[in-house]
Amino acid sequence: MNEPMDIAFRLNGRPVELTTDPGRRAIDVLREDFGLTAAKEGCGSGECGACAVLVDGTARLSCLMLAAQLHGRDLTTAEGLGRPDAPHPIQTAFAVHGAVQCGYCTPGMTIAAAELLARDPAPDREAARRALSGNLCRCTGYVKIVDAVLAAGAALRGEES
Amino acid sequence: MLDDGLSPMAGGTDLLVPGRKAAGRGVALLEGLPGLDGVAMTAQGLRLGALASLAALERHPVIRERLPVLAQAIACLGSPLIRNMGTMGGNLVTASPAGDTLPALLVLEAVVELASRDGRRHLPVAEFLLGPGRTALGPGEIVAAVRIALPPPGASQHFEKVGRRDALAIAVASLAALIVRDEAGRVVEARLAVGSLAPTARRCPSAEAALPGRRLDREALLEAGRRIRDEISPKGDLRATAAYRREMAGRLPLRLLTLA
Amino acid sequence: MDADRDKGASPGAPRVDALDKACGRQRYAADETPPGCLLAGVKRAGIPHGRIVRLDTAAARAVPGVVTVLTRADVPGTNRQGIVHKDQPVLCGQRVRHHGDPVALVVAENKDALAAGLAAVEVAFEALPAVFDPEEALSPNAPLVHPDREGGNLLAHGLMEKGDAESALAGCDVVVAGRFATPAQDHVSLEPPNGLARLAPSGRLTMVVSTQAPFRDRFEIAQALGLDPQRIRIRAPYLGGGFGGKDGATVQCLLALAALRLPGRWIKMAWSREETFLAGYKRHAAVMDIRLGARADGTLEAIACAMCFDAGPYAHLSGEIMELGMEHAGGPYRIPHVRIEGSCAYTNNPVGGAFRGFGVVQACFAVERAMDMLARRLGRAPESLRLQNALRPGETSAVGVAAEPGTDVAACLNAALAHPLWTGREAWKQAAPAFTRRGVGLVAVQNAMGYGRGLPDHATAKLELTRQGTFRLYNSVPDMGQGNAAAFVAMAAQALGQPEAAVACVQPDTAACPPAGSSSASRTVYTFGNALLRACRTMAEKLRNRAALALLCDTPDRLVLTPGGVSDPATGRFVPLSVLAGFLIRDDRICIDQFVMPVVENPPDTGREFKLGFPHRYFTYGACLCGVEADELTGRVRLVQCLLTVACGKVFTLAGVEQQLAGAAAQGAGLALFEELALEGGRIRAGDLSTYLIPTSLDLPDIDCLPLPDDEPSGPLGIKGMGEVGIHGPGPAVAQALFDAVGLDAASLPITPEVVLAALEELTP
Question: Which residues form the Aldehyde oxidase/xanthine dehydrogenase a/b hammerhead domain (chain C) (predicted)?
């Protein structure tokens, strides 16, 4: 155990603070201290991407981040992208395009997609596949996930999909 | 903090994996330290801060334009999520025989800038890498940056990684090449480096010596491949047998036939 | 086909579970952590076979934060779990039989204490001789996995026969023989096995588990721990994947044991990825010897097949998996003379168990490869030999069951042959870039639906009209991602004339839902869907009758359910469901109905050893085309084209069918090219996600799915089960494609770059 540390950061748009062991994993802080369970633990070693969150706009693996690294950051989980009654266009596209099956990889996928579309608003299928290649899915074969990312891009660009 | 036995941590993508060196305890975070981030143009070339994320380097216009061998190596490292977190310095210090950027840095003749409270020193990458997981880092020393002189604009650069899948793969073998040719297409200078075929990523001087004065034809490249085979000491593991790796050493240069 | 689709849910309507999941709001078992929850973990053997000579838990108990440490001595009941055969200890007392066997259960206040407690458990073994090869395990001198068991290491053996295969083979113009092997495979559900348990002061045990079979789990737990199954309540929220890996006890008995010893406390157990590799079930590795004979004109005459499955140390469903493999060993072909022998051996490898494809993956690879060998011997194109012998409705299958009417496997093959990926294949191969060789393969597949004869494939559906006038359906079959819950909501909404938003879905809960079989065997939507539609019909009739009173209508049959109410088209009058519901007592607002899948009426006189699960009546058929690129320098193979055609009854939602097919094909592609546990002395060397490689988004093509017009009159809305059929094709189709590309005749999976490179060497010395 390390000495507890005061950690302040923005979480899904709101400033938060906690005092905790800075050596805890970020995913545990999110799930245990904030009850935000969108970030899932599929492997704990950065190999599956189910725990991905946006940190200052960049998709990161919360299982390989320490609580101390959250300090001063702006963190967004899938819960922060949108809610079922006010979903983010990426979340809508995942639902509409059949990209969600068991759904365990889905929050992480939407986070990777959000980073991609912020950087490249009109990716092709290859670019989408590359951007999602750190997020394993065992249910879908990825086809509809790629469909959804492209459709979300179109929606965010204001185009009809 | 380093004096207290803490491990310096950059992106954490290696250090925090359970069962590896730190696993969440006893690390000193480097992020935020001044002078370790970003890419700077200098008179001698590029200075890549040790904490520059691999993703930032992959997308950097000068690296894409002038150091494609490095951009290609980074593009096949881990996954986008790993590249968002992982750093240039981390890939060097981890010193994996399979470290994807290392063969590229070797052919670019990159120099590692080391810093400690006693000052700074510079080491060529080849002298920095001592063995699997072993580097020339001294006590209390960290990697501050990697310095790369820009190769001549006409140099051909090439990187290929052989992995078992197309993302999230650890290299079975890799080849980085930097070739300068004259107007007649004859090799003036050849730099070749391989990964996952020896205890560290390494240059292949004997193979390099086979190419100057020749065109990059099948015979020349097969000869280079034969010489690489003699220069390496591959091991077998879960991903491939030693024999397969040796085979790759001989064959990968043939891909240079597709260089324009 | 469009007409059929129109009868289904609208293609654009998302699954009811999709948006919650996409927004990260769906709570899986792994997301439940009640306040004050304790954590449980297991100390595992770490050796393949041994006698426990010392087990000391004192140091572990002394670790601050450790609440208790339990061993075999703490287990009441038989200490034996298992679905059919009860041979797997909850905690091992004397002997361990594989690396993942549990020897002690530690319960602690937090993760750090749990880890320290597990590390402090002292256990010493006397190593025993072990056996890792199922064929060796059946030799007379092999070490015995269960020494006092009658029958030694032979867990199950059976024979399926039709005609006289040996005589027929002797008379064939051409006979090919081959030995084929498929490896063990891990499910890699993204959500590892996990659950929670609490023993209430009343003596009731409540559990929340990521499980495919909550109703059956109660009996498995009760048997193992000497409990009354009626005192066990299990909830199964949406699963983060299952694929068979959660069909049978994972955490259940261990959690229940911990809860019994710590009454009143919630206890959670969540396996890590590594523990899941170590302790979870695997698809059975299998070896298959086939002799396949035909006339000179290509007409199949006879097949003899011997299949040997590696069960690992415990039965799980090994015998039943072998049995289904045997039933499929003749492929979807017309073969008059058949002899299929199966054996299943105990070994000290990881435990074999259920996995999508359930024995059929193994059988399909072998028979399809044998068909390729035969085609080559006859100088025939692989697809034409398959078409010539394709089983047609009414003809008897290899094991003597008449094929049901409906779209057949020939139609599936023909649809693939008409597809641009097939018709354009020569041009595509010619256009291969430098250092690249391309090839295309096409195979036929089939998969039985349901449990088969002897084990009633049943489901009971409960439907409630709420006081508010909406509906609540009680799903009794866990949704592990296949979308059955959403399909049930859509079916009920359609049957009741309501929008989907008016139908809420309760996930499986043994205290609220009536019983049903497991989420498995391509049966979920078929069986429960039939029960549900019956309940919906009863509900609709009831509501028309009740509404008739309010609407003063003496012919209730003319009334129709419309969104939110019941209407009389003759008068235009309408009574809201909320009003009707207010007049009904709760008992009257509930309809429960059930369904049992029809079985083969005249089973063939073979396979008599199999009391449960043979034969099957309904089959889903398909064809799978794979286009591959092999790199000449590295031997790396990329799957770059994949097409699945399928006859699975009517299509309820196209997206639902595509999801199942593409997802299954992705797992089949993983098995074909990547996935390998690298067993060594019973130890999994590739025991994490950096070494056990499943396909990433860059490793798969855009998989095309083409369901054909079809109808299964016994199915709900004409559907058949199709959750498994898509997994079989990629293995043999990739193998055939690689023969096309580089002349490699692969007899086992996965096909590694080294093997491909060796074939390339032969091609271009």
Answer: 23-129
